[in-house]
């Protein structure tokens, strides 16, 4: 009975039974830095356990990762971006033809996360967030808009708040300027800096804050400013079979169950590039 049940589970997940698998090598996944916890603690290990493939991940700002791929500084099998537009920088002969297609699979809204040890923590619970951020000595963390979609969303969001709430100059007061290096940190380290008490608050995606148990303020305009995560198999992937297996796992029942538990919002029917190049099993998962 146990053997039959196990076989059923493998089949329902889209994989062969353990003794029928021919997994070989390690799958290299390059991803948006906001996914570090999800990829390294959950999806990656679970994928390896389910399929027999090895897993190796690298996370940084989506634009920074794309730049490293384009410059041949980093080679991978799968690329996961926090913004669909980043994929276009890797498409076409002028960009190295690294990406032919990509599909959006999940979203996560922008939120403000604050440190419980901050002297401004109680203020976030009782005062408008934009007033708290203008307090003397307030330490804000964000990502670089030049290399990370979240950094771009942060700047765009604050400009929109200026208009919506009739607060001219708000973004300048809070940010100083878009490239204020005293506030800008690598995406993959921002959560840790807040937890270490180096920052009073920062701009995060909701899935990051949830995973790290960081209290948040959900700005009224926050739902209009979200990460939209996309996945693709890179052309020339060293482990193409492993890359396909990983994407099928990520978008399959086991992967989506983990994503749902982490608070991701799912999206469907958003495929970019050459739709005819998408593997059939992947297209079914992106549109089903």
Structure description:
There is one protein chain. The chain is globular, with a radius of gyration of 20 Å. Strands 1, 2, 3, 4, 5, 6, 7, 8, 9 and 10 form a 10-stranded mixed beta sheet that branches. It folds into 2 domains: 26-107 and 226-287, Periplasmic binding protein-like II (D-Maltodextrin-Binding Protein, domain 2, 3-Layer(aba) Sandwich), CATH 3.40.190.10; 109-224, D-Maltodextrin-Binding Protein, domain 2 (3-Layer(aba) Sandwich), CATH 3.40.190. It is 41% helix and 19% strand. It has helices at residues 2-12, 36-51, 62-70, 84-88, 121-126, 129-132, 149-164, 170-175, 187-195, 206-212, 240-251, 253-261, 280-287, and strands spanning 26-32, 54-60, 78-81, 101-114, 140-141, 201-205, 216-217, 226-233, 265-266, 271-273. With 288 residues, the protein is an alpha/beta fold.
Give the CATH class of the largest domain: Alpha Beta
Q: What is the CATH topology assignment of the largest domain?
A: D-Maltodextrin-Binding Protein, domain 2
Give the SSE string.
HEHEHEHEHHEHHHEHEEHHEEH
Number of domains: 2
CATH architecture type of the largest domain: 3-Layer(aba) Sandwich
SS field, number of helical segments: 13
What's this, in brief?
This protein has helices spanning 2-12, 36-51, 62-70, 84-88, 121-126, 129-132, 149-164, 170-175, 187-195, 206-212, 240-251, 253-261, 280-287; strands spanning 26-32, 54-60, 78-81, 101-114, 140-141, 201-205, 216-217, 226-233, 265-266, 271-273. By secondary structure, it is an alpha/beta fold. Strands 1, 2, 3, 4, 5, 6, 7, 8, 9 and 10 form a ten-stranded mixed sheet that branches.
């Amino acid at each position: 009975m146990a053997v039959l049940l196990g076989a059923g589970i493998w089949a329902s997940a889209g994989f062969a039974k353990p003794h029928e698998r021919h997994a070989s090598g390690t799958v290299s996944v390059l991803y948006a830095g906001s996914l570090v916890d999800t990829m390294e603690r959950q999806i990656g290990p679970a994928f390896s356990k389910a399929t027999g493939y090895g897993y190796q991940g690298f996370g940084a700002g989506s634009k920074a990762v794309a730049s490293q791929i384009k410059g041949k500084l980093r080679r991978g099998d799968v690329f996961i971006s926090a913004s669909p537009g980043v994929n276009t920088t890797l498409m076409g002969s002028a960009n190295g033809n690294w990406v032919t297609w990509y599909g959006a699979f999940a979203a996560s809204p922008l939120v403000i996360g604050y440190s419980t040890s901050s002297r401004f923590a109680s203020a976030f619970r009782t005062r408008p967030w934009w007033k708290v951020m203008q307090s003397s000595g307030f330490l804000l963390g964000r990502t670089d808009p030049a290399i990370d979609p979240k950094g771009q969303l942060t700047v765009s969001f604050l400009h929109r708040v200026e208009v919506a709430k009739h607060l001219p100059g708000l973004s300048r007061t809070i940010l100083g300027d878009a490239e204020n290096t005293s506030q800008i940190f690598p995406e993959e380290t921002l959560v840790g800096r807040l937890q270490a008490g180096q920052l009073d608050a920062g701009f995060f995606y909701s899935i990051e804050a949830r995973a790290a148990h960081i209290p948040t303020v959900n700005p009224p305009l926050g739902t209009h400013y979200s990460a939209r995560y996309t996945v693709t198999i890179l052309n020339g992937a060293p482990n193409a079979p492993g890359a396909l297996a990983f994407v099928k796992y990520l978008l399959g029942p086991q992967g989506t169950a983990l994503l749902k538990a982490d608070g991701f919002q799912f999206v469907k029917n958003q495929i970019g590039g050459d739709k005819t190049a998408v593997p059939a099993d992947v297209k079914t998962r992106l549109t089903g």
